[in-house]
Amino acid sequence: SSLSFFVSIVNCILKMFAFASTNKLVLEKYLSLPQGSRVQATYIWIDGTGQGIRTKTKSLESKPSKVEDVPIWNYDGSSCYQAEGSNSDTYLHPVKIYPCPFRRGDNVLVLCEAFKYNQEPTLTNKRKACKEVMDKAKEFAPWFGIEQEYTLLDQDGHPFGWPKDGFPGPQGPYYCGVGANKVYGRDVVEAHYRCCLYAGIRISGTNAEVMPAQWEFQVGPTEG
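^ thats the sequence. predicted structure below, dont judge the formating
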């Protein structure tokens, strides 16, 4: 049946997650190696789903002091749901750089807009049109802010910290909760918060939400 097929697919995905886990302490040993004057620039863009994030890393000869120092790059758009295989060159235009909290040092994260081979924005590049409108309203100094809620999942797809054979107690003690029996995954939340501060992102707060393993954070206000 279609249900059993779906269940089998989910089980395969969960097995892939289990097999793909690695010991991060091994990585730390190599990240501490000196890298000389060259830096790693991680280009980041939104793929053709409008929700997925893609990245690729480029070596630069020195730390960029401004976004104009980071070159335009390209990628295979057909592998990101953004182009046909017969004409798949898609281009990354850097728009903002941040210090990289993962590699640290002089390495940077590079937020990009994606453009098709004919220099038209990809369908999921909404920033270009938004910026054109905001530039027209620049004298009004528009403000932006977001609030993002999310739920932490374990490698088996189960909400993190939930009983494997049941459910947590009813909602009530979890919102803005304190203590190991009220909130789960605070170390992930604290790591995310500190990474934002390190990178210079104007994160303004975070808190546990009404469901165990559910959190939210806020960014802004910031001028557009």
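The two ends are 51 Å apart (CA to CA).
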